[in-house]
Automatic annotation (TrEMBL):
Protein name, as recorded: MYND-type domain-containing protein
InterPro entries given in the database record: Mss51-like_C (IPR046824), Znf_MYND (IPR002893)
Gene Ontology molecular function, alphabetical: zinc ion binding
Matching PANTHER family: ZINC ION BINDING PROTEIN
Cytoplasm as UniProt keyword: no
Domain of life (superkingdom): Eukaryota
Domain MYND-type: 42-81
Listed transmembrane segments: none
Keyword Transit peptide on entry: no
Keywords linked to the UniProt accession: Metal-binding, Zinc, Zinc-finger
One Pfam family this sequence matches: MSS51_C
Amino acid sequence: MHTDEKAALTRQEEGHRQLRQLWARIKHDPSLRIQTEDPHGCSACRKPVEEPLRVCSACKMVVYCSPECAKRDWFGHKPLYEGHKRDGEILSRWKAILEQFPWTARGYVSSGAYHNSVVLIQFGLLGTDRKKVGYWVETVKNLDALMGEEVHKAPWTSLSEQEGWRLPKEQIPSLERLHEPNAHLPSFPPTFDDSWRSYYQWRGLPMTSPAALLLHWPLTVYACLKAAGIMPIYQPGPRRKLTIFYVGAQDEITFIPVFGELALLFPNTDLDMVMFGPTVRKSVAGAITRGDIKPSARYCVFKYTSPASCGSGTIRVLLDAKDADYVPSRNPSENPDVIVALNAGLGTYPSWQDVIYLAAELSIPFVVTDYSEAGVLVVRLTEMEQALKGTLPRAKNVKQEGFYFALRELTKMVKIVDVDRTCVALREASGRPAQFNEFMNPAHRFAPSILSPTACSAFIKVMVPGRRVG
C-alpha cells in the first residue's frame, strides 16, 4: 500500500476510534437518542443556517439563510421544487421505517459522522479491516485510498457466512443453514408483505438484527424487478432464465453473497446478475495485473441455489471487466431482460443519459432508484426528447445554454437510430409515477435540504416501458 493510501486509511480509522469512544460514554444512558440530521446548510451559499429555518415556501424542504439567497437560487430550484415537495410528503414513511428497529433509536452522533456508524459500533462492526468486520467493511468507492490490502486485491472474495456477517447465529439471514437436515425453512410460497417487519418474520430474524443494513440491496432489486413486471413464479413448470444488468455497482462488491437472497425470492428461476461500474472494472483489472485471476470478459464470483422446498431458484453474480460505463447494445443477444441501477444519481452523472436514450430506443426495461424525486427530475426527459429532434427552445441564460449544449453533444455520441420511437418511450417514462420502496436502508437519514446521496433507494421509477418478462 502506498504512503498516501496508508495516510487516508489512518485518518479514517482515527475517526472510527473517536466514534467508538463517544459511544462508550453514552451507550448506557437511556435518555440519549441518535441525532440523524447534520446542521442545515443554505442551498445557495452553503453557509450553516441557524434556527428558526427559512425554507422554500413552495416545497417546504430546501433551506436558505436569507431572502436574497432564496431569490438567487430560484431559477435552479424551480424545476425541482415539485420533487422536493413530494420528498417532504413521505417523510413520515421514512421515519416509520427507521423506527421499526430498536437499534436505530439509541445513542448520539455528532454532526458529520457516518450515517451507519453508531449502529455498526453497537454490534462491533465498525472498521476498515475486512478480516475483523466482514461484509461491513467501509467503503470501496475509493479503492486506492480506503481499502486494506486484502479487500483491495479482491473485494468480491467470498467469506464464510459467519465471517461475513459477524453476528450471532440467530441474527444472520442464513442461506447455508437452509440446506441442513431439519432446517427451519421460510414458508413457500412466501407470505411476507413488502415491509421489513414482515420480511424479518418470514426469514425468522429478530428485529434486533442489523441485517437490513445489507439486505436492502437485494430486496430493492426484488422491488425493481416487480416494478418492471417480472414477478416470482410459484407454480411448478419450465424454468425461467433471467439476466439482470446491475449498473453502477460500488460498495456492493464487498458483500456480494447477500444477493443470494434473490434465489429465495424468485423460485423456479435461473437468474444471472451482471455488475458493471468503474469500481468493478478497476478491481478486476488490478486482480488480473497481479496474476490473481486470468483475463476474461466476465467473472462469476458467486453462485447459490435455494432448497427444492423453497423453489430451487438459482443466482449467479458476475463482474463485467470490459466496460466502466455500461451502454446498451443494438445486438439483441447482448442485452438483458432488465437494467437495474440502485441509488443512481441520474441528475449527477452524464453517463446515465446514454443508458436512458438507448434503453428507450431498444425497449429494454430500465428500473432506477434514486435518493430523491428531485434527483430524477433533473434528467428532464422532455428536454432530452427536444434535443433528439433538434427543437430545443432558445436558452434564456448561460446555465441553460450549457445544459442544452451538453444534451446536443450526448445525442450526437449516442447516435439514436429510431428517433420517433425513442421520443415516445421517453415521453411515457416521464409520466410514470415514482413508487416508494419500503426496503430502503433503515439507518439512513432523510431531512430537509439533506437528501442523503447514500440513502439507497428512496424511489423506484421505470424509466422506459420496455417489454414485460415472465
